[in-house]
């Protein structure tokens, strides 16, 4: 006699899980992130560029800042290396997604975790968490190194000074946001070169060129672009006066990232791996 219950593919087997828990998916993404050497290289480069270049530019500009020849306040230089550490944050977020498409790992991931939204959420949490910590550590190291030279020139800033702690925390938040931006772009484009070009072009190139647009509308376009809107929270004092208030800009940046991630998740759910 045939056991029809045993042949039912939808039957419930005691002790068996139909889908992995989100904690399992999160752990898998964490393991995948740290199993490739590019992660360590990216984070090492992020630290060297962010902290190293901040220290270097403060050393080089300290006397000019003190004499007024620099034309900028000391606070503008304390997170200067962020300009370059953005590159590695974008690269890391992109590779987390596009490397899986390149190797075919994405098909295995989807097979193991059929709920694709859980994959996106796990990648987003892992990437943003790692980049937040890396950005915060880098910003603190850059502040300690750069402010040492500024102090010697009599223009150093204390942690209690207006905007300093916010900028250090903001570095972590901004780099985490850039990582999410790159994850979303990678899901939409699925090609490393194309995703990096879009991310770096929009954040670093278009964001700067937009300041050259004429009139009030050009000023607002520049303010609202992701790199400019989000970057203001990571600066003690911006080099340009044309910027949104730090937390206002970050709120705009967060809304843009959320919208892009939502679009990427919807496309990821409907498209073949």
Describe the structure.
By secondary structure, the protein is mainly alpha-helical. It is globular. The longest helix is centred in the middle third of the chain and has 37 residues, at 116-152. It starts with a helix and ends with a helix. Helix 2 crosses helix 6 (116-152). It is 73% helix and 0% strand. It has one domain (19-270). The chain contains 11 helices and no strands. The chain has helices spanning 4-7, 22-34, 37-67, 82-103, 105-112, 116-152, 164-189, 192-209, 215-224, 226-231, 246-270. The model is unreliable at 1-13 (pLDDT under 50). The chain crosses the membrane at residues 41-62, 74-97, 118-144, 164-188, 195-213, 244-268.
The DSSP helix count reads: 11
SSE topology string: HHHHHHHHHHH
Strand content: under 5%
| pLDDT averaged residue by residue | 88
Largest sheet features: none
Residue runs with pLDDT of under 50 for 5 or more positions: 1-13
- Total strand segments: 0
Rg computed from alpha carbons, rounded to a whole number of angstroms: 22 Å
What's the end-to-end separation, in Å?
Answer: 42 Å
Helix content: over 70%
Morphology:
globular
Integer tally of domains? 1
SS content category = mainly alpha
Organism: Modestobacter italicus (strain DSM 44449 / CECT 9708 / BC 501)
Protein name: ABC transporter
Keywords: Membrane, Transmembrane, Transmembrane helix
């Amino acid at each position: 006699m045939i056991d029809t219950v045993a042949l039912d593919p939808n039957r419930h087997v005691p002790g068996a899980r139909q889908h992995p828990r989100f904690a399992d998916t999160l752990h898998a993404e964490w393991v995948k992130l740290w199993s490739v050497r590019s992660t360590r290289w990216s984070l090492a480069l992020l630290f060297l560029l962010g902290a190293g270049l901040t220290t270097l530019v403060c050393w080089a500009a300290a006397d000019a800042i003190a004499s007024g020849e620099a034309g900028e306040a000391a606070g503008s230089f304390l997170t200067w290396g962020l300009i370059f550490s953005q590159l590695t944050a974008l690269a890391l977020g992109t590779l987390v997604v596009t490397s899986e498409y390149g190797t075919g790992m994405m098909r295995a991931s989807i097979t193991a975790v059929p709920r694709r939204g859980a994959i996106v959420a796990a990648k987003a949490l892992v990437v943003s968490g790692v980049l937040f910590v890396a950005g915060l550590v880098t910003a603190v190291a850059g502040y300690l190194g750069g402010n040492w030279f500024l102090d010697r020139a009599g223009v150093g800033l204390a942690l209690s000074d207006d905007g300093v702690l916010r900028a250090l925390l903001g570095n972590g938040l901004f780099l985490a946001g850039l990582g999410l931006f790159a994850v979303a772009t990678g899901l939409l484009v699925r090609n490393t070169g194309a995703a990096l070009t879009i991310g770096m072009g929009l954040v670093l190139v278009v964001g700067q060129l937009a300041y050259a647009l004429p009139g009030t509308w050009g000023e607002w376009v520049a303010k609202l672009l992701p790199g400019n809107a989000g970057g203001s929270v990571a600066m003690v004092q911006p080099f340009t006066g044309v910027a949104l208030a730090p937390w206002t800009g970050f709120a705009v940046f967060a809304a843009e990232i959320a919208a892009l991630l939502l679009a990427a998740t919807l496309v990821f759910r409907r498209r073949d791996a």
